Amino acid sequence: MSNVKIIYEDNHIIAVVKPASVLSQGDQTGEVSMYDIVKDYIKETKAQKFQRNFVLGRAPNLGAMEYKKPGNVFLGLVHRLDKPVSGIMLFAKTSKGAARLSEQFRNHKIQKTYYAIVAGKPKEQRATLKEKVQKISFFAEAFTEKSDEDLLKEIKEATKTRTAELSYEVVKSNEKYSLLKILPKTGRFHQIRVQMTQMGHPILGDKKYSKAKMREWKNNNSIALCATGITFKSATGNKTINLKIDLPKEWDKFI
């Protein structure tokens, strides 16, 4: 956890900055993921808290299960970022936090802000892109507690045509590239990457969706797309939490 930045934490929710090239959740490759890293952090924190209370003589009076079993932790994955994408990720530390965040994602109450460097300059300074797509991200909502039957149902739904919508604004441009601020209104699978390519301005470094030659981008494990902001409601009460991070430093030489 020493190389991962925590930008928000309360009893129910934790927000971290995912580096590019790190998985959001583990897969068949066995690579360490953000889910693994954050879960280890919570385990370590609970163990330290348990030890501190034991030393202070409070252990006999601890009734909470979390102190009785410091290694047993809950961590809910409520959304994902693609492996080559960097930026803010939210995790739920409790089932209450997971339910509240999942509900907000499902009802489009969470506003995410992305920045991207794209090839060329869009014709319009500001625009909304709205089109039909056949892939959706059923992984974008919490599914760690779902049954095989529920997952199969969502996989079948993933083949249906859905609307993908986002708005963008050109922040600045040069002869080769443009920096865009992007506000997605839906959460379809690889939506921003697909829609930028279909618009004719693929994201710098995104070889999956573009055949354009962008030799200046040397890192094959990342693309110039970053989730820089997110706004959501707290798990308890009605507090609005607005989180922001700076653009990656390595973008400076491109735009």
Describe the structure.
The chain has one domain: Pseudouridine synthase (2-Layer Sandwich), CATH 3.30.2350. It is 22% helix and 27% strand. The chain has five helices and ten strands. Strands 1, 2, 3, 4, 5, 6, 7, 8, 9 and 10 form a ten-stranded mixed beta sheet that branches. The longest helix is centred in the first third of the chain and has 22 residues, at 34-55.
Short summary of the structure?
The protein is an alpha+beta fold and 255 residues long. It has helices at residues 34-55, 65-68, 95-106, 148-157, 191-199; strands at residues 6-9, 13-18, 76-77, 86-92, 111-119, 126-133, 162-173, 177-184, 225-233, 240-244.
Sheet of most strands: 10 strands, mixed
Oligomer category: single chain
Q: Which blocks of ≥5 consecutive residues have pLDDT under 50?
A: 60-68, 136-144
Q: Which shape, going by the Cα principal axes?
A: globular
